[in-house]
Amino acid sequence: MLFKKTKSLEKQFNRFLNITNDAGLILLEGIKSYMKDDKVNFNYHLEKLIKLEGDADSIRKEIVTELYAKTLIPESRGDIFDLLENLDDVTNQAKETLIEFSIEIPIIPKQYSDDYIKLTEFGVNAINQVVKASRKFIQDPANVEHNINKVYFWEKEADRQAEKLKRKVFRDKSIEQLSRKIHLRYFALHIDLVADRAEDVADKLSIYAIKRSI
Amino acid sequence: MILFFLSSGLFLGWSLGGNDAANVFGTAVGTKMIKFKTAAIVASIFVILGAVISGAGASHTLGKLGAVNALGGAFMVAFSAAFVVFWMTKLHLPVSTSQAVVGAIVGWNFFSHTQTDYNSLIKIVSTWVFSPILAAVFSGLLYLLLKYILRKWKLSIFRLDSYTRIALVVIGAFGAYSLGANNIANVMGVFVPVSPFPDISFGNWFHISSVQQLFFLGAIAISIGIFTYSFKVMKTVGSGVVKLTPQSALVVVLAESLVLFLFASSSLRDFLLSHNLPAIPLVPVSSSQLVIGAVLGIGIIQGGKNIQFKTLGKIASGWVITPVISAIITFIALFFLQNTFNIEVYKNLSQSREVANEVVAGKDFSHTSTSSVQALLDKLSARSREVAKVFFVKNQLDSQSRLFFSERNAILFSRINKKINYDDFISHGITDDNIASYHKIDNNKYERNNNAKYFCYLNISNNNFKLNNELETKNGESQAERRGVKCNEKI
User: Fold this and answer.
1) pTM of the predicted protein model
2) What's the rounded Cα separation, in Å, for the pair B96 and B319?
3) Test mutation, B157, B162, B165, chain A, max A CBs within 10 A
4) B156 touches chain A (CB under 8 A)
5) At residue B458, what are phi and psi to the nearest 5 degrees?
6) A71 in contact with chain B, both atoms CB, cutoff 8 A
7) Coil, strand or helix: which one is B459?
8) How many other β-carbons are positioned within 10 Å of the β-carbon of residue B269?
9) Considering just the CA atoms, what is the radius of gyration of chain B in Å?
10) Among the partner residues A2, A74, A139, nearest to B154 by beta-carbon distance
11) Beta-bridge mates of residue B465
12) What's the gap in Å between the CA of A203 and the closest CA on chain B?
């Protein structure tokens, strides 16, 4: 009975992590579609991301209910609850970013497409590493630090890329209107937030890992 | 009336159950890893099993320290110990039931002019000092082992949680068993020499000794203590001063249980003896101090930054303060009980010596000297002397045969010479009546032999007893007095 619950929880947690990972990849594909002005694919990825975010929410609730209703892992369930919520924020941020693109439809000059894609890739790398770190935290907390460092690395890379992009935009004489420059900056900032959310999870994970060492 | 006299022991048992069960299941319940109901049921069952099956060893050591030989005295000894525990707990002073009981027994010894067996006292006190250190060593090693295993196995947090829960129940059960085996001596040990219950036998296969019945009653009191009072204590332990992860708690409980078991298990001691390893004294120890020792062990492994020397000082002071206070209170209480209520609190042990002298003087013990018998009696502890007395009286009334030294005394005597394992006899349910039918087959083993008419160290034949060569030599007796019969040599 106890092991059945354990197995189901492990399964659910893995599903949740897979969703978070997928969210990053779909975000990247969505951004690429947007840059190519491929509306059909963009909408497809947007819808997929919205659905995934919904799934992640319900899995998170199921896990938390199970943990609290059956008083499982009483000493760390608060941490697991926070971890799931923070990971959900990452998925949410990915979804919000694509939604913002669909609402505001920013006009991205062709010469900036690669910069935005690169920025998204860095963010996705950070997500990928934070998912790996979360898996490690569950399975092997003593070795979580390695992946956490990688999250920090990609977050810094994303920051650097965003800064580079913003500088480029504001120095670009071909873009005359300040409002357009601000709009482009806003979207760089938005994509960069994905990496920031991953960094938030990494921060918490390093503390949880210390707490989990016996 | 008997139950009234036992009530102080039962109260002590209740208080032990209320407080010390938390040392086994406290963290598990406090951190919500195990439901209180589960913990209480498991703890109660295993405390009873431990007390009834393995409780004799530690209580025998207490008996050697001083055999409280009157029910009134036993009542007051247990009552005084319980009072000291209650009072010191109320004053937030560190207290251990074991230490209070030992102090109370010494107090009774003083009151009844019984010589305290200082060897036993030293053995007990040194065990108090040694046991938390041993718990620290055990927990340190177990901690490292568990850490290694967890690194190797890479269990998920959910799986680890399930395994930890199961381990907490299993190790908790072992802890409760060890607690019952070790600490029942504190609760009922003083009543052993005056146990009012007769032995119960159903055929040859089922036998419950008087002492086991006494221990069962004490263990029931412990169980009631667990159910009625320990929840509050467990909650405090779980959220208390020392915050442990469930895995560290597991290590602490296992280390504590192992030490309790080491100091309670007769079979383990015999095993060590038979392999020429040093014997572990069977002494009731403080489970609370073991927990502190075990937590400290983990603290040292983790770098030793959080060691509170104040706590260590408190433990050390408890080794002295508690027994002394307990001894004084018992002395006063015995005086009060004897002189106010005119209740017998001790039987005059010197009578037994008088009887012995009388018997020795009245019989023809041409093969030995009175002085050697007297020397032997002097060596026997108070409890043994009491046993001897009973034998003398009984045998005088019965017949002349087996008159003086029963084989039991021979065993006691041999035991002093560290040749025979006394508990072997007791654990096999050998009573005073059938002890003659056991004979020694090697250093530590005895075999039932219904035709045996002699005993390795002491032979009884035609109203005479003969010491064997080795024993005589050890006692420094002269060659002229010696009428030895060698071991395994049939008369």
Assistant:
1) 0.74
2) 9
3) B157
4) yes
5) -145, 130
6) yes
7) strand
8) 21
9) 24
10) A139
11) B460
12) 19
Could you tell me the sign of the dihedral formed by the alpha carbons of B383, B385, B386, B387, in that order? Answer: positive
Structure tokens that stand for B257 in this block:
């249980």
**Which of A9, A140, A142 is nearest residue B158 as measured by Cβ atoms?**
A9
CA distance A194 to chain B (A): 27
**C-alpha angle B460/B463/B468, rounded to 5°?**
35
* CB-based burial label for B233 (10 Å; 0-12, 13-18, 19+): buried
Pairs of CB atoms within 8 A across A/B: 53
- What is the C-alpha to C-alpha distance for residues A60 and A80, in angstroms, rounded to an integer? 10
Residue B180, both tokens = 């019952």
* A74 has a chain B CB within 8 A of its CB: yes
Separation in Å, CA of A75 to nearest CA in chain B: 7
Among chain B residues, CA nearest to A208: B157
**pLDDT string in tens for chain B (491-residue length):** 677 888 999 999 998 888 888 888 888 888 788 899 999 999 999 999 999 988 888 887 887 787 787 888 889 999 999 888 888 877 777 678 888 999 999 999 999 887 787 888 888 889 888 999 999 999 999 999 999 998 888 888 888 888 999 999 999 999 999 999 999 988 888 888 777 787 777 776 777 888 888 899 999 999 999 999 888 777 766 555 556 788 888 999 999 999 999 998 888 887 887 787 877 888 899 888 898 888 888 888 887 666 667 767 777 777 788 899 999 999 999 999 999 988 888 876 554 444 444 444 444 333 444 444 444 444 444 444 444 444 433 333 222 223 233 333 443 333 333 333 344 434 433 333 333 333 333 444 443 333 333 333 333 332 233 333 333 333 333 222 223 333 333 32
Contact state of A140 with B248 under an 8 Å Cβ cutoff = no
Contact B187, B14 (CB under 8 A): no
In chain B, residues with a C-beta closer than 8 Å to the C-beta of A73 are 157-158, 161
- B278 neighbors B259 (Cβ within 8 angstroms): no
Containing B446, the helix (H) or strand (E) segment is: strand B446-448
The verdict on B299 touching A (C-beta cutoff 8 Å) is no
Q: Is B309 strand, coil or helix?
A: helix
A9 contact residues in B (CB cutoff 8 A): 158
Could you please report the per-residue DSSP string of B216-261? Answer: HHHHHHHHHHHHHHHHHHHHHHHTSSS---HHHHHHHHHHHHHHHH
What's the pLDDT tens digit per position in B377-394? 444 444 444 444 444 333
Reduce the DSSP state of residue B447 to 3 states and report it.
strand
